[in-house]
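Reply to dn_fold:

You asked what the input looked like. This is it:
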Amino acid sequence: MADINPSPTPERAIYGFVLYLSSIFGFTLYVVWAFVPEKWLHSIGLTYWPQKYWALAIPTYISVCFVFVLVFFVAFNLITAPSLDSVKTVTGDLTRPVGPDNALQPKAVPALSDIPISEVNRRLYLKR
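and this is what came back:
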């Protein structure tokens, strides 16, 4: 079994440096494409570029997709979660329901039992 060492290996350092250089190069290329006028690009021989529309459209689409994914995951979790008074939310094989002798009293410590989620929600969130 190989020793686990948190320090970077030379291969990882090389990969990181190449990734750093390529990201700087890509960002520089993007800035040139987005902000330098077409006439200047044609005068130095760079004639094949996508339309300037895509310089704003691609980051906008990526941002909108990111927000959509966040909203989608929250909505998906809310749809697939069982309702708050469902038996699936709290109960299990070893559940001890609150009995009549274990009634919840204001200044007493009740016996060990599982409080139903509907009772917890009623006490925490319903206005009296």
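The mean pLDDT is 84.
Hope that clears it up.
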